[in-house]
Write the structure tokens for this entry.
Amino acid sequence: MPDTVIGSARSRGRNRPLWHAPGLVLSLFVLVIVVSWALVPNWWTTHDPVTGVPAERLLGPSSAHLFGTDETGRDVFARVVHGAALSLQATVIAVLVALVAGSLLGLVAGYRGGWADSAIMRVVDVLLAIPSILLSLALVTALGFGTTNVAIAVGVSRIADFARLMRAETLRVRSSVYVEAARVSGLRWPGVLTRHVLPNAFGPVLVLGVLTFGTAVLEVSALSFLGFGAMPPAPEWGSLVSSGRGFLATAWWLTTFPGLAIAAVVLAGNRVARAIDRETEHQ
Amino acid sequence: MTQPTRPTQPLLSIGDLTVSYRTSRGSVPALRGVNLDVHSGEIIALVGESGSGKSTLAHAVLGLLPRGGSLDSGSIRFEGTELSTLPDRALRAVRGTGIALVPQDPVVSLDPVKKVGDQVAEVLVIHGIQGRRGARSAAAELLARAGVDHPESRAGQYPHELSGGLRQRVLIAIALAAGPKLIIADEPTSALDVTVQQRILDHLQELAAASDTAILLVTHDLGVAADRAERIAVMSRGRIVEQGGSRSLLAAPAHAYTRELLAAAPSLTGPRPRPERESEAEPLVEATGLVKTFALRSSRRDAGAVRAVRAVDDVSLRIPKGTTLALVGESGSGKSTTARLLLGLERPRAGTVSFGGADVTAASGERLRALRRRMQLIYQNPYASLNPRHAVGTIVAEPLRAFGIGNRPEREARAREALDAVALGASMARRRPGELSGGQRQRVAIARALVLRPEFVVCDEPVSALDVSVQAQILELLMDVQEEFGLTYLFISHDLAVVRQIADRVVVMRAGRVQEAGPAGEVLGAPRSAYTKELLAAIPGRRGVGEEAA
């Protein structure tokens, strides 16, 4: 589904070359690099992210150790590169949970209306009433620690946004003439929903998904920073920032570089979301 | 550019005007060397189809080209002043006092949060004609001149409290406020019902004559142009292809495009394209005593009070197999609701609909779906009725998919057949609706309706969103496929000239009730009810264009 949305948006709306938007190009470049870190970390670094060389403790950035080394002599660049896999995995799970569950709830509420709408939207209202970080903390405490559980908790706390947007879009599309035309053609409601309502309502929801990608990176990192995420010594961006905190005065590189990686991904995600938003608006 | 001194210098003189729009694919010319003179006190009509550049011309004169539009060359002289190079400040003084605009859409052209009286008064204050205090009473006077009833109390109302016709009158009052010498009326009545249209144009004409104001009437309707204008200029693809006195131009059009337009315009006189059929056949669709009410929550004052409006009130009709019944009426007359009741899309409060012996009103679920296979609907607006994400081939094949008919290649073959029947090539199947013109889209919608080989097709104003020349093609197509597939039509329209071409029988509706029913020739030729007579009299073009078009 996302492929078709992006594909059609590109093929129609793209009327100026990509290199006219340097910010967008840079953002895509950042995302591609980070994804390649996650998929093939060994292309980027030969250092072991888990076992360090005790002799090389707390060295500053140099050509041998791009981001320096930590208190046990591990290469920080290697830990950031290898940590991308865990962080991105958690973020993707979080966004997927929010997107899938939220969209389904919104779709059902918007399309069926009546008591289903009221019931679902009241639950969503309750979700909105609780601060999302508090909700995630409560959930991760209940589910148990670990990256996956952190991801699910972050995802659940974002369901409400998706449900509301999807419901609004569904209501808009549902009243359009071509949806009635499909009913007149004899299509049953599941067909109307999957072939007409969903594809036309999904554009803005997808944009929100990409936008949430940025904030989810932050929230997952925040929960790991607080110690709910990956267990040491496994590298994860949030816990890297957290563990470097003790050396802030003497070894700035321990917190700065993982922090910059988080910031770069969040900014790049937002820029890409804005571009997709523009493209879908054209239609 | 020097103006030759003539005894009567034109009020507005447009010379060799070229305007283009910048788009992503480069610059697109909208006007290519347009020459037009307007003399004071005359009414001149600018006629053309959508995209011909007539609105661009109107806006260029006012210096109000939309973003991306640029005036490339040529001159616009108004009372001897060159407008195209005039600074914005000076141009603003000309607008309103010199040239005024009556915009097309009365629904969106008024500020929804301001009282209409204040909107009229604003013009007077801006141009320093009246102070704030005096403007209010002057505004009421202007509203009265524009034909608004109870001007004092109407001035205190908001646009949404007024009908379309009244809103258009308010717009006319705004245009007249500063006493302009030229009024540009951009399709001033095309969103209104014919009887309202007639009254408003009559009024505008009188006002102009009384104050010696010139009117540039932009319209797509040759009938309106023939009735109202002394001179007509025909535009096509950014050029004025022909201009001259209305009578001589319509009697002997010199340019091929004008002839084409005239031939395409449906008329109330002249021979019908097909003889009327009086069928003795069994009725395919029969409705008796249909009533449909809508609950209406009325204004703030009595919130909570629910008033029931009878949208359809005791309507009975029968449509014999293989014939066309036209349902005629103005907006709000209940004709679309009646059609939706026949198709089982709405449930009536009372009455029954039978379709080939089956009761539609009692059917639901799968039984209703089985009936739907035999009846289809073609919508008014082909821009809204096709899913923008689907390819044309998918859209046409969808009813087959819905009923699980055939496998994929078979469905594709049948979709191609249907596209072929509506004269769209096989290459169309891969395009999306966004790449098609309005006429092509309506053909796709017709193909979708035909692909299931239905017996009964409801056409809900199928041509009213299309240009005249395209209208004629679609009507012809509808008649051809009716012959070919033996279809029964319910044809909904507000346009009696269109109805006359296609209908065997006509039912005239007003305010939910049937006013008159009978064979098309009888109803349109010798109407019995006063309302039908009024409708017929209001149709523009009865004074000129009809005879020549035949």
